[in-house]
Please model this.
Amino acid sequence: MNPDPRRIKELESCLDSFDAAVRSESLEELVELADSGIVDFEPPQPVLNLHCHTFYSYNAYGYSPSKLAWLGKKSGLKFMGVVDFDGLDGVDEFFRACDLLNLRATAGIETRIFVPEFEQDVINSPGEPGVCYHMGVGFSSGSLSSEALEMASYLRWRAEERNHQLIERLNKRISPIELDYDTDVLPMTPSGYATERHMVIAVLNKAKGQLRNPVLFWSKKLQLPLTEIKRVLKNRQAFLNLLRKKLFKRGGLAYQQPTTATFPLVEPFHRLLVESGALPCSVWMDGTSSGEQKMAQLLTLFTGKGVVTLNIIPDRNWNFQDPRQKQLKLKNLQELLALAEHFNLPLNIGTEMNSFGQKFVDTFDAPELGPFREAFIAGAEFVYGHTLLERTLGLGYQSQWAQKQLKTHAAKVDFYQGVGHIAKAGTTYLKLVRSLSDLHSPGQVLTALNRIS
Model:
């Protein structure tokens, strides 16, 4: 069997189809080719990416959950995780794909919350005091209980309301261009959830068909020199970034400063996570904001409300040309990891992939990341260990079994990291894990996993 390489590329392209059946059939055919030795995978390496956005919220490269799983396996990642904004639409597809590929998988959700205790401080949402990006990781499914579904639906409704209000403000400022949310924006998404990044593309697409002199139009609207508009228009991605900044970010034409009512509080979001057996996860930017300069206070607050993990995007903490900036960010990162150790917060790291130029996987062999690499891998082991036992047996971190058998957060961290260190992945392996039960003690679970792994 020696298929045309063009067929493999065609199948890989089909993994990003909005048709779920097409994605499923294409992945199955690719797995068959891989099992036959036709498609080569990189040897597995101790590298990972647990924070990849899919096209269910926004992926800069249009990747579906299946495509991310396939590329993760091809690239030799040991752990792979998806995280989408305000939704879990891609979780079950991602797990199915990773099971077929024998890839260790995790899944999460990201949103924004309002933190009244820090309402005077910018935290990790630039220019927006009190607003905080926040996450949940370690989901076992995209299917939720009725209580969790109600809270998840509320998150989605709030996000859609913000989008409609944003479009309304935008249309008043960029006339004669006028976007229709349902016809111009939503068709760019597979399940009806759009972000401001989709809206930026919709603006650019609509402008192409309506503007006779786009340079003059954008120069006036954005209040920038004609020469700068001409220069940036030559690079589509650079212009999209400029539009996003000038239209939607703080000070932009359609921007409106958030209020205490714009985003939910942390407590209802955490209820959604705990009800779903997932792990509340704090999000770190780079330590330069006033809020993140009080990170010990913030983590004290959040761990008191249930946070058990900490998300980091490593690249924004070291990868800079300016040596002074790099030194500052690395110092902040080092101080953060000391805090993470103090609070016993395993790390969830990744690259996001919701903006062009973000890597598929971090540069783990960069000297700057050397001191942190062990902690990065240990964090992935913890999140995966929890995910595996929650998916197969309902014995994750939040389970009654864990509350009874593992009395402290530290005991849970040690146990689930141990599980993730031992455990493999794949459909056959998951069946073996399901032969265990809640009658086993943590020690017996580890012994059994050692036997079958």
About this structure: The chain has two domains: 41-139+264-452, 175-248. The chain has 18 helices and seven strands.
